[in-house]
Design brief:
86 residues; alpha+beta; SH3 type barrels; five-stranded antiparallel sheet; globular
């Protein structure tokens, strides 16, 4: 219970830093680019299909070409894939 009580204040302090960092890292992504969608415990290669302001639309290759999701770049970490993974 003690760890759970401390997690909320840490998360609240981390959010103002993680949002701008995520936007900065994903600033070069354009439609057609490949990127890594990073989540706790996993990273998945995705295709950026759209971009508007702070939102990205990505498609997951393993889940089927028709399935895409809209993401806010301030809430998730999307990192451009290296040229070697293309």
């Amino acid at each position: 219970m003690g760890a759970g009580a401390l997690a909320r204040p840490v998360r609240g302090r981390w959010r103002p830093v993680s949002g701008p960092v995520a936007v900065h890292v994903s600033r070069t992504l354009r439609p057609g680019d490949r990127a890594w969608f990073v989540r706790p415990g996993a990273a998945e290669l995705v295709l950026v299909t759209g971009r508007r302001g702070l939102r990205l639309v990505v498609a997951f290759g393993a889940r089927g070409p028709a399935e895409g999701i809209r993401l806010r770049r301030t809430r998730v970490l999307v990192v451009p894939a290296d040229a070697t993974t293309r």
